[in-house]
Specification:
Layout (H helix, E strand, L loop, with lengths): L4 E5 L5 H10 L4 E5 L2 H5 L5 H22 L8 H14 L4 E2 L4 E4 L19 E7 L1 E3 L2 E2 L2 E7 L4 H20 L4 E2 H14 L11 E3 L6 E5 L6 E2 L16
Parallel strand pairs: 1-2
Antiparallel strand pairs: 3-6, 4-5, 5-8, 6-7, 9-12, 10-11
Helix pairs in contact: 3-4, 5-6
Length: 239
């Protein structure tokens, strides 16, 4: 009663859903706007942060568990399934996104899909996964080596780790996404890996795994306190 207009988020409602609302409330002035929900969700409340922390704690425990599970001969799918089973068994609502568990040449694919390929010694194995708790997402990427890493593997790993540290070193309330991305990207490029880092350095997460803002070369806006962000630079060398 007394409501004369309604605005919905066009990125979250389908055309069919919007039409049904218009049919149900013919006297309302109804219009769509982009990203009104995502903008309001940028700054997280303490309750939201606690839920994300709980989700990440489950994810951390899953990684610790999986280190004793992965071995030569186990398949990528089996690892992905074990991660998801452990997370659910330990309190997760489910997974925040489709689990990535890829080995060998496939580890150079940032969004690779697990298959029945068996893990082999002396090769990279990358896992990107996250539990969801109380509706909130977590996100973790970890790369390990079965057996012994060679010199090039160590160089790539240490370069990415140092890039992450440099990004973390510039993060503070009010920093722009460009500044954080540049801190990581410039280090990776300075080590000879220009063109091998094809995504942004990080993104916000909450009810959805990818929210605004981002640590990217396109984000000139400041990122403020109580925004939950991932920091995940990478190097991807085909083959």
């Amino acid at each position: 009663k007394g409501i004369t207009s309604l605005v919905y988020d066009k990125t979250l409602l389908t055309v069919a859903q919007a039409d049904r609302i218009a049919e149900a409330f013919p006297n309302l002035k109804i219009g769509g706007s982009s990203n009104i929900c995502s903008e309001s969700r940028r700054i997280k409340s303490q309750r939201e942060i606690e839920s994300i922390k709980a989700a990440q704690q489950i994810t951390d425990s899953a990684f610790t568990h999986i280190l004793s599970f992965i071995r030569e001969g186990v398949t990528e799918i089996e690892v992905a399934a074990e991660l998801e089973y452990f997370a659910r068994k330990n309190g997760a609502d489910g997974m925040a996104f489709d689990t990535i568990a890829v080995s060998g040449k496939k580890s150079s694919m940032p969004h690779g899909v697990p298959s029945d390929i068996e893990l082999t010694k002396n090769s990279f194995f990358t896992m990107d996964f996250g539990a969801k708790y109380n509706g909130y997402c977590s996100d973790m990427t970890r790369t390990v080596v079965l057996g012994k890493a060679d010199g090039e593997m160590k160089q790539v790993y240490e370069t990415v780790l140092e890039a992450q540290k440099k990004a973390l070193g510039v993060i503070k309330s009010g920093v722009t996404g460009i500044e954080v991305d540049a801190a990581a990207r410039e280090h990776i490029y300075s080590e000879g890996y220009e063109g091998c880092f094809g995504h942004s350095t990080g993104h916000s997460l909450g009810l959805e795994i990818h929210e605004s803002p981002s640590f990217s070369s396109a984000n000139k806006e400041p990122v403020f306190a109580c925004t939950v962000m991932s920091v995940e630079p990478g190097i991807y060398i085909p083959g």
